[in-house]
Amino acid sequence: MNPKTSDQLATGVIYALVAAVIGILIFLLGYILMTGIPHISGHFLTSAAQSFRAGGGVRDQLFNSLYLLVLTLIISFPIALGSGIYLSEYAPENWVTSLIRTSVEVLSSLPSVVVGLFGYLLFVIRFGMGFSILAGAIALTFFNLPLLTRSIEESLQDVSELQREAGLSLGLSRWKTITGIVLPAAVPGILTGIILSAGRVFGEAAALIYTAGQSAPTVNYGDWNPMDSASFLNPMRPAETLAVHIWKLNTEGVTPDAAQISSGASAVLIVVILLFNLMARLLGNWMYKKMTATR
């Protein structure tokens, strides 16, 4: 086989594999959306779930998922950003750094149910947090940190060394070079890591069953006092998320229309993740232009 033919054959195989992956993704998304969107309505999105009667919605579960996502990112992003900057810009290449990177990789491979059991034993039982949003957010931080840290480190390493040298040659300190030149250039890659980790957090169920709980008590959406037990902002209240609600419907199925609610909730989950990705991309592009002064 001559080189031209082998190159064409390899290119065709690669295109076929890419088409297969895209086809599978389109099939999964299409099936979930086509079976779930007909069950989505204004009442479905704004009404509380029902335990034994038909006609329930996913209002509380949707808000709990978004609240837990924001709280998890608030906790994990500063830690991951600091770790990524250290590993990329300051850490020497020795056995300590290799051990840190290996630990990050091992932590990223832990099953989510193990993280959930760890959070249950430590935060729910040992620290007395009970089933709460805060316990779930801290547990998901352990689940989220490896991917986010690795993404930030790789994004910083992808920035050209010439940009660092240019900053240092202008008399900027190393820290000012990192914050003023390297970080703005790495914003698209960092944002990609945030989107990937946010998708995992938003769709996570196993870890939250043991930490955030499986109940969605009625809360007062007009009370902005986080210390009130009935306030929707109270981080110490139990919170059933959308993913946990879907799991619960498909395992217990005590409501007459459990299949319809599960399909609708799955479609809402997919749509919210897609919208979050789109808004994050738009925000990231705007931030990149602002921070790098590009037009």
From TrEMBL:
Keywords for the protein's UniProt record, in alphabetical order: Cell membrane, Membrane, Transmembrane, Transmembrane helix, Transport
Protein's UniProt keywords contain Lyase: no
Broad class of where this protein is predominantly found: membrane
Pfam family, one: BPD_transp_1
Membrane topology: Multi-pass membrane protein
Residue span(s) of domain ABC transmembrane type-1: 62-280
The organism's place on the tree of life at top rank: Bacteria
Compartments where found: Cell membrane
InterPro entries: MetI-like (IPR000515), MetI-like_sf (IPR035906), Phosphate_PstA (IPR005672)
TM stretches of this protein: 12-34, 66-87, 99-123, 129-148, 178-198, 258-280
Protein family membership: Belongs to the binding-protein-dependent transport system permease family. CysTW subfamily.
NCBIfam families to which the protein is assigned, alphabetical: 3a0107s02c
Name of the protein in question: Phosphate transport system permease protein PstA
Source organism of the structure: Lentilactobacillus fungorum
